[in-house]
Amino acid sequence: MSSADEAANSLQSVVDELHDALSAAQAARSQAEDGLTHAQAAGGAAFAVAFSALRDTIDGLIGQISSTVDKADEAIQEAKAVSTP
After folding, report:
1. In the chain, what is the straight-line distance between the N-terminal and C-terminal CA atoms, in Å?
2. How many CA atoms lie within 13 A of 9 on its CB side?
3. Cα radius of gyration (the chain)
4. How far is CA 52 from CA 12, 25, 30, in A?
5. Is the Cβ–Cβ distance between 83 and 4 less than 8 Å?
6. Is-above-0.90 flag for pTM?
7. 79 burial level (CB within 10 Å; 0-12, 13-18, 19+)
8. Which pLDDT score is estimated for 83?
9. What is the pLDDT along the chain (85 residues), one digit of tens a residue?
10. In angstroms, rounded to a whole number, what is the distance separating the alpha carbons of residues 20 and 28?
11. Per-residue confidence (pLDDT) for residue 84, from 0 to 100
12. Minimal CA–CA distance to 53: which of 36, 38, 41?
């Protein structure tokens, strides 16, 4: 196995872990959304603002993880291209 193949395999492991992180972040966003809905229904304006801010922060995290997955996929393709004569 070439160094490029090993790099591609290692990067695939990174992508797999990032997909797990993305799933966890999406679950956290759903929980924050539930908290926001409950706070709004209960008339808790301060809690609603806090849950809204949390949801927005998680949305940013989801975007960053997704971007990192895209970059890792790009690196995998480059590694595969190097290993192909």
Report:
1. 13
2. 7
3. 19
4. 34, 15, 12
5. yes
6. no
7. buried
8. 81
9. 789 899 999 999 999 999 999 999 999 999 999 999 999 999 989 989 999 999 999 999 999 999 999 999 999 999 999 987 6
10. 12
11. 73
12. 36
* 57-64: long-range contacts, CB 8 A cutoff, minimum separation 24: 58/25, 58/28, 58/29, 58/32, 59/29, 61/25, 62/22, 62/25, 62/26, 62/29
Tokens of 21: 């992180």
Distances (CA, A) of 48 to 17, 32, 33: 32, 10, 10
> Which token pair is 52?
């809204």
Residue 2: predicted pLDDT: 87
**How many C-beta atoms surround the C-beta of residue 64 within 10 A?**
11
